[in-house]
Amino acid sequence: MTTVDRDKATATLEEERERLVHQLAELGADEEGDLTGDVDFGDAFADAAAATAERTETLGIIDALKHQLDDVDAALAKIAAGTYGTCEKCGKDIGEARLEFRPASILCVDCKNGS
Predict the structure, then answer these.
(1) Could you give the CA distance from residue 111 to residue 104 in angstroms, rounded to a whole number?
(2) d(Cα 56, Cα 20) in Å, to the nearest integer?
(3) Residue 96 CB partners (closer than 8 Å, separation 6+)
(4) Which residues pair with 37 in a beta bridge?
(5) Residues 41 and 48: beta-carbon distance below 8 Å
(6) Could you report the per-residue pLDDT of 49-98, keeping only the tens digit for each?
(7) 26-54, pLDDT tens digit by residue?
């Protein structure tokens, strides 16, 4: 592992996880990204197009948040397994600056960019 502080990374990732779960809940979704039924997109026929557009936008945001949450969970699992800071694709160390900037990184810059 690179010299990134695991305790600091864990704390940062846990805070990020709480934020993402909170955002999902505000959008009416659970941690799995499934709608909980707490969201009303409107039932009036005249508003059908607007409701469909709003629902599509909301589902897109939920999907993006769920992917971010998956990345955070994967990074936390790597910390627990002792493999945090190692690229999942090439096995090389992920740069310290990258991990400080984006603690949920599981790929090095080269692999992320497809090099």
Answers:
(1) 15
(2) 19
(3) 2, 3, 4
(4) none
(5) no
(6) 777 788 888 899 999 999 999 999 999 999 999 999 999 999 999 998 99
(7) 998 999 988 887 665 555 555 677 777 88
Biggest CA–CA distance in the chain, Å, is 58
| Residue 115 CA from chain centroid, whole number | 23
Q: Is the pTM of this model over 0.90?
A: no
Name the token pair of 30.
């659970």
What percent of the residues of the chain are helix, what percent strand, and what percent coil, each to the nearest 5? Answer: 60, 5, 35
Beta strands in 29-111 (DSSP E): none
Instruction: Taking the CA atoms of 115, 63, 67 and 103 in sequence, report the sign of the dihedral they define.
Output: positive
